[in-house]
Amino acid sequence: MAQDPLVIFTPSGKRGRFPVGTPVLTAARQLGVDLDSVCGGRGICSKCQITPAYGDFPKHGVSVAEDALSDWNDVEARYDRVRGLKSGRRLGCQASVLRDVVIDVPAESQVHRQVVRKAATARVIEMDPATRLYYIEVEEPDMHEPTGDLERVKRALKAQWDIPEISTEFSTLAGLQPVLRKGGWKITVALHKSDHAAVPRLISAWPGLHEGGLFGLAIDLGSTTIAAHLTNLETGEVKASSGIMNPQIRFGEDLMSRVSYAMMNPGGDVEMTRVVREAIDTLASELAKEAGIAPSLILETVFVCNPVMHHLLLGIDPVELGQAPFALATSNALSLTARDLDLTTLPASAQIYVLPCIAGHVGADAAAVALSEEPGKSNDLVLIVDVGTNAEILLGDKTRVLACSSPTGPAFEGAQISSGQRAAPGAIDAIRIDPETKEPRFRVIGCDKWSDEDGFWEETAATGITGICGSGIIEAVAELRTAGLLDPSGLIGGPAQTGTERCFPEGRTHSYLIHDATEDGGPRITVTQGDIRAIQLAKSALYAGARLLMDTRGVDTVDRVVLAGAFGAHISPKHAMVLGMIPDVPLDKVTSAGNAAGTGARIALCNLAARREIERVVKEITKVETAIEPRFQEHFVNANAIPHATDPFPELKKIVTLPNVSFNTSGDDRGGRRRRRS
Amino acid sequence: MAQDPLVIFTPSGKRGRFPVGTPVLTAARQLGVDLDSVCGGRGICSKCQITPAYGDFPKHGVSVAEDALSDWNDVEARYDRVRGLKSGRRLGCQASVLRDVVIDVPAESQVHRQVVRKAATARVIEMDPATRLYYIEVEEPDMHEPTGDLERVKRALKAQWDIPEISTEFSTLAGLQPVLRKGGWKITVALHKSDHAAVPRLISAWPGLHEGGLFGLAIDLGSTTIAAHLTNLETGEVKASSGIMNPQIRFGEDLMSRVSYAMMNPGGDVEMTRVVREAIDTLASELAKEAGIAPSLILETVFVCNPVMHHLLLGIDPVELGQAPFALATSNALSLTARDLDLTTLPASAQIYVLPCIAGHVGADAAAVALSEEPGKSNDLVLIVDVGTNAEILLGDKTRVLACSSPTGPAFEGAQISSGQRAAPGAIDAIRIDPETKEPRFRVIGCDKWSDEDGFWEETAATGITGICGSGIIEAVAELRTAGLLDPSGLIGGPAQTGTERCFPEGRTHSYLIHDATEDGGPRITVTQGDIRAIQLAKSALYAGARLLMDTRGVDTVDRVVLAGAFGAHISPKHAMVLGMIPDVPLDKVTSAGNAAGTGARIALCNLAARREIERVVKEITKVETAIEPRFQEHFVNANAIPHATDPFPELKKIVTLPNVSFNTSGDDRGGRRRRRS
User: Fold this and answer.
1) How far A221 CA sits from the closest chain B CA (Å)?
2) Where do the domains of chain A lie, and which CATH numbers do they carry?
């Protein structure tokens, strides 16, 4: 008796023998090959497309004849006529095996396909979504054997998909009857599985085969901005991205001022919860509109946020986070519904996953960075800094990961800076100061040219030069230091000390004039002594936090630095190091990870296993509390100097020579004036 | 070496040997003796009180010495001083075993104590509540080992109560932090367990030891009235009972008219859902006030209701229940929260259990009757009739149970009856008509005397005689028939035919005057021909439903009849049988079960195992659909006669002789006038 035909799947390499006439989808399922199907082999969803390969395959030891698969049948012909089937493709549920065959499963037919992140790094996200679609054909009601419609849906899932038990989101129940009748008892259901529930949960249903897609939101809920990616949960494709201001800003710029607001104003926490949820609704609505989809198709949302935002999102008074011992109401990951959070743009049954918090000051946003950047898998010692109003700092390698947060304040985002503004067209985001002439040149957002290049003024006429954004102010301070206009203690020199009228007196201190746009009706853009102090406070906090983790780890240097956060992506590593924001490393060892927290949210949105992974990882992270660590204060004071009072920064010295100036005219500096150069 | 002391618990009889010094509570737990404790043995909750018995116990083979238990310790002394300990009682967690001892566990120290139902039958409810209290001492937060407060609560439950995992009702989370701090990290939590969830669910928390009790509502949500019992979930005691009108009545008197309202008015179902939920909130609030408890202590609610009320409660359009095949959206039992139903009087985390429905016309109320009356455990064949606007009918014994519902309409409740009214003071609820004089005497609600007894008129002067209620109209029709004023076809005779002026012409038919109160400014209370027709329709539907079940079971008689429902409790069995409402059985085989549906709700509220039981039982019940069964129509027509056109009613004949009259004056009756007696 002849052997059954051999079926070999690529790229998995899985192989097995099956009786003549076995559908390719059946063979794939029995071998555990990742071949998608929503309709369960009924030839209507087209998710199980495969490409048979013909000819000799010495590698696999088979020759595939032209008649290895059954001929096209009516179902395939109709599908091709109506929708078009790519050349060489077959429907895996319709084509059956006649002889030895090699079957390629194209990426788009794999459930667990890989999606390349948009960010610079080559990391990919493997699709393993929590919510999946199942097409079912449900028995019609029978008066003589009365059962509920839901019970017959369950019976169909058991018989047709081997799903023995489900639970039902209550808000989905009311819509089930009309859907069943509209679909003629053929419907598609969305089932959500999570580790937090014993069985999959029915969260939506559509008449017939649902082809409108399934979407999720990955939301990075920051103190200042709320950023979200609308993602297709079947393909992993980002359909739309957007961000809006966090409306809580009117209750306080930074986290602690919001906690104070809640403490001082009864019901203040409730009000802040209300406005942030409204903003999320608005954002979700805008994204759905931009992507051209119904908001009812957004069935999952993942949140990452710092602990205060975490509590305010959940409707928990953040007061405990404002005082030692900074106790979180809950630190574990949470599985909720849109209804729990009173989100009204999303369907009430939409599933919400909130990443775990690491500690009272180190939130789910830091967990998301850990998920995205995986310090625990690094061979060398990596310092990851997520720069924002609060900085989340991770230090680690394969042996151990440590985390802390540091209250940098909003200066790095251009707030509390005299000419500061958000990163928007017209904002100076890069600046160079000639060490000889002390004259500046700069670039603004919206124009690629430097201000001393031809055409710059014409191209920026529309926006004007409106202010200076976060990365601009960092460069400005670093350039002032490099050009000898700012001494290590952070004092701006006067015109006589510096030899330039751009350093002009303002009250009892000096400011540096970058650009005077008053003739064009614009502002005078300066760096004031107050701006320098604000940046010094911010960078000292950041550096001290990093240094504290290094102390705890017992090291004086790190192997590499990753700058995360939307802002981190725009920081010039050299200027950051001149400023002493980050520890001294070779410049090529400073990389940007883009919005790593947002990427972590996207990973958790697309991949269920990643949720399990980060829930495990956060438990293993060593938490360091900056607020109560005496050495933090010491590190903070030493980090106030630019770049640093005591740490040597040898790598920085290889590329930059910083003028040894001092502009302190009082008698208490340690030899300042004598060492003045200019 | 001497043996360890022997400890014998009564009433369980469980026994075992324990080392000297073992606390009684510990011994009880190790033996699986049902001894309550909320504080886990800390000597503060007093739930584990026991009574040691001293002297000789030949039955148990032990002598108990006076020093069999340790002396009173400080904890017991303080407890006795502050709260008072009943004579002979000890705290099981404080008293430890020194020698052989017999320990009695009084009923109030048992978790699974038995509670006698208020109803006439001797049946008891065993306490096995889904929600229980646990006192825990929680670790304080530690900045160096940061975990959330909730995570430390979970750790305490695991360490102190051996509860390895819980889930948390989201709405409970926000309140946890203040409770922990107010209680100094000592709190009591309420955990709810159900078959629908894998692990117990945290649903409430109080500072310190919670001694304010734990309450539940058993709600019988009827088409006309909503009745509820507020029950102490620790003792089973009913603290308050009340009922209010279902405000949906303004959308339609009976179920089908409400379904029609939903069909004809877009959004009508939403409106009906809103008003019924508001009414439940009002009722819950009134009951809490009456019992003197905070509504926040009502942590569970059980609902029983017919399928239309079931759907309207849940916010599901009932339209499918108004047309064949009468498909329920879901038939299984449901576990929800107060928040799911937008109930605002109860805490959002209050757990709601809705009993399963049996079929599209046979609801959770019928399931509750089955739970209360247990036809499936009956040795003889019992017919259970729950009389209301819709009648639920169950027929069965140990071998098989059948169920149907029948649309009797509201006539049995006094609605659509010319002089009809609700059962309230002033309503006639019993009537006798003298067969010779044809004169009536009657009783009214609020007065024990008959109208021909001395003092009747004085005692009823305050209320007046205002109308006739459901049981009154049934008696009136039966008495008219017995007195020869009504013929088997349901025609009231005229004055000439009957020889009494109380039978007076009204239009083309006759009415019977019961009482003329017009001189006192009251109504003329009559029974009209229309009233007779309404009662005939109702009783025919009821009888036909019962008969259909008997057909399906293959029997012509039943062994006994149980009348359930608040109204069923007031029906006179003899009159019901004269009317032909129920099949012919010996009169002493007709009993009343009171509000069996409400009792079923109370059982499900107090006993978790009962929920599992009824969920199993409803699946085994044979459902009979009256609306599509041709024989139902035939039975209905035959049942129109009083008592019945074809069924012989031999038991009835033993006690009542019905005059063989006919008042049909047209030529089409079969010999009517010739057989006239009067």
Assistant:
1) 19
2) 6-109 (3.10.20.30), 131-207 (3.10.20.880), 215-354 (3.30.420.480), 362-665 (no CATH)
